[in-house]
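Standup notes, structure subgroup. Blocker cleared on the magnesium ion input:
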Amino acid sequence: MKILTCGKGGCGKSSVTALLAIELEKRGYEVIVVDNDESNFGLHIQLGMELPKDFALHFGGKRMVAEKLLKSKEGGRFSVFNDGIRASDISEDYMSKKGRLNLIAIGKIRDFGEGCACPFNALSADFLRMLELNKGEFALVDTDAGVEHFGRGVEAGCDLILMVIDPSQESIRLAEKVNKISEGAGKPLYYVLNKTDDETAEFLLDSVDQSKVVSVIPEDKRVFRNCLVGEALNFELKGIIELADFLERKTNRER
Ligand SMILES: Nc1ncnc2c1ncn2[C@@H]1O[C@H](COP(=O)(O)OP(=O)(O)OP(=O)(O)O)[C@@H](O)[C@H]1O
Ligand SMILES: [Mg+2]
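Run returned:
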């Protein structure tokens, strides 16, 4: 199953992605984490992994990806892949590994004035569409803040969207927007309430479509601390166990 994590800036997308990846790996799944955030460099640290080379470099870099993208406007469907691709096809330069955890970073903005990140999102969309998962594999896609990646169709190759909602009006409003987008894309959407306490969890449950909430994760000092000092999020959290249980049930049902 391919799962896309989205939400407003700082709501905990990367933390949830890393915690979930580590939990699923512990359960024996092969997990392919796709870092689709061109700006931030934290996900590999939250996973306790090395940052691989940008996957875009495998195709000659951002400019080459953009050129292929432009050609696609003249007809044909944009793809840098000739065929379906499996995680095992990707060389270790572009995919770092730790146990059954695998990490791909689509591309990072590194230099001042190097242009927009559109080609990275286009490459992500292409990759996720072409990625073929084996039985017992999960792909978890961590996105940049907001909804830009939806405009590039990154969600099209995914089976399910997880929106992380923190206690803020921005998140509550964004939930409605993402709901409409996911309906338009025909993708199931589920909410993860994050950084909550009893009071804020109750408020959020009253404010969003409760039937979509699959996990409630309290504010937890360990998450904050490990992100601050740069250590992996390799501890158990009840909300993440609930989330992994839900996703396991979903994949088993779909088989
Ligand atoms: N459940 C939690 N409890 C405490 N702190 C949390 C929790 N989840 C996330 N945080 C903290 O919130 C901050 C933002 O988290 P994170 O980087 O995962 O968010 P993000 O949505 O990926 O951000 P960005 O939009 O910048 O990519 C970090 O300092 C992290 O430690
Ligand atoms: Mg992030």
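Discussed briefly. The chain has a mean pLDDT of 91.
Next: hand off to the docking folks.
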